[in-house]
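Incident log, structure service

09:12 report received: a user says their structure output differs between two submissions of the same chain.
09:20 pulled the input from the user's history:
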Amino acid sequence: MPDLSLEIALQARGLCRIAGIDEAGRGPLAGPVSAAAVILPNGFTCPGLDDSKKISALKRERLYEQLTTDPAIAWSVATADREEIDRLNILRATHLAMRRAVEGLAPLPDHCLIDGLPVRDFPLPHDGIVKGDGLSLSIAAASIIAKVTRDRIMCEIDAEFPQFGFSKHQGYGTKMHLEALRIHGPCCQHRRSFQPVAQLTLSFGDG
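09:34 re-ran on a clean worker, output below:
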């Protein structure tokens, strides 16, 4: 289970405000990518808090409410939309969402722990922590907030385009989603730079 060991080690170097950063939605064929930045208070504990991918949707919702209503927790969440993903590419759009999220914290953190590899040209000092959502409690908290935020956005998109079932698969390339794409063609929320959407866009026209 993740803990605060990485955060405590940085604080021992005199870095007080440590933000964990994680993203959700790099792999789907549709919708935005989201990122969250979270600063937890010293001594924070939260039984069951872990990498969002290891937790049920119901438990994620409960943890989200707990994290976002605790006045001792500083948090921010941001997105990069479908157009930005197609224009920049998914990696750069993810990093854009991360920058937006951390810049939403006030005051800014002294140091960041980012899930994955270090981010080029990131505006603040940081460490990239591979599989960090299973190691750092701050990153795990960010993973929950980013994931729940994006899932809620996909439910809103589902209401506009119910034929695709976005609320069920969140835009991932499931059998159900691919069949709906084959029948209906892409909608404005589909990532044109992703296959098989790119090929289907040519077949159906960019509508």
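09:41 both user submissions now match this output. Likely a transient worker issue. Closing.
09:42 reviewer note: The chain has one domain: 5-161. Strands lie at 18-24, 33-39, 74-80, 111-115, 126-129.
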